[in-house]
Description:
Elements: E1 4-10, H1 17-25, E2 31-37, H2 43-47, E3 53-57, H3 63-76, E4 81-84, H4 96-105, E5 109-114, H5 124-141, E6 153-156, H6 157-162, H7 175-185, E7 189-194, H8 210-226, H9 232-246, H10 250-270, H11 274-289, E8 299-302, H12 314-328, E9 334-338, H13 349-359, E10 367-370, H14 376-390, E11 395-399, H15 401-413, E12 419-422, H16 431-457, H17 460-466
Parallel strand pairs: 1-2, 1-4, 2-3, 5-7, 8-9, 8-11, 9-10, 11-12
Antiparallel strand pairs: 4-6, 5-6
Amino acid sequence: MLKYAVVIPAFNEAKTVREVTEQVLKNSIDLVIVVDDGSTDGTADTVRDLPIMLIEHEQNQGKAVALVNGMKHAADHGVDAVITLDADGQHKPEDIPRFIKGYEANSNHIIIGARLADKHLIPRKRYIANKIANFWISWAAGYPIEDSQSGFRLYPAELIRSIDIKVSKDKSFVFESEILIKAAQLNYYSTPIKIAAIYEEDSRPSHFRGGMDITYITRMVAWSLITRFFYLPGLYRSAIKPQLAKLGLREGMGLDGIAMMLLSCFVIVVTGGLFYFWLLFKTWMTARYTAIPEQSFNTALVLGMALDSNQPRPFYLARLERAKNILQGNTNMKIMILGGKTGQSTLTEAEAGRNYLLSQDVPESNIALEDVSRHTLENLKQAKNILSEQELQDTALISQRYHLYRAHTLANGFKIPHTLCPADDIFKINILNSIRLLKEAFYTHWYWTGKIFSILINNQHMLNRIR
């Protein structure tokens, strides 16, 4: 029978640590270790009478040292796996059997309690910070990690015995990120299980030191990437491949597309990102300063977007609403909705868009569909063929502001006469939109890399896809 230990690091948690520990003891756990990390509020005294191992640090040494100390003690006691959870009540010990079940199914995996499904319960700034951390740590680890900052985890004891990470008080919150990266290099990956996001209004302030801890984590991840020449395979496996699979695009890309994406990454690295940053600037300028056109059009091209349970997402609805508003000033205009089936949807993006417009009393005679394309490049290639056949010239190209420059670049490549028409009234500068701009600039760089390389080697197959 497998043996398990639970390690609870605690610093000034007298209010909550006993209840958490008692709940842990209700599970079939062979060893429970509480590490009192130099508390000054009597934390150790609240659990001293419980059937646990109590480790007391004379001075506060930081969460990383407390975790490693407890985990090493657990591994030395011959357990098969070690579960860690916080002492402040943000984790539910009742979930421990689910971690054990996950480990028994994947004995060489770290099991992580992923909280990000409860987005509405998590403070917005913390949610955004976690998403950003997930991106960078996943890149350095080489696979997608759903919640890289969760402290509720199960580690195989063999990993704890074999891994060596230097820890110190000033890097208290680096360890839980770094171990995911180091573990992946030893072929230990993580499996998420969904847990509740618990944030009590009267809970103590977080020990996380904002800018300082983010700086230490960023420095650790950056060094990991730099020493591996930016680990481009990790970027592909962690960020790009999952997005392509989600949108059903890997088949549509083909080997040429994947090769050009990797070449684009290589070009960015060796050129110091000079062209990439120019494209990022153009992407931002287009998003920030493109005016909503006032003239009438013969055609409005509405770029498709992945659906949510066969329903248009908010950004897609904004594009459709903009087309509907333009139609009010020109009842002869055609709204051409672009997009086939993507992801798990059973409706095409174009069909979902048409259904929405019909529900808004837009006449069906004003709606045209293109329902085979799977991404922006295919959207516009199909649109070019339809526009040419119907001799339609005066065209509005509708999408979100962050997406306009790439759409404009691709439309120019297909020689589609168009006027950019933002779906949103203004471009709001925030973290999420900044990330979108970074992605769009990369996609545009990918396009230009593929186009220039195809011309240089005269690859007609690739050129036929982009012109």
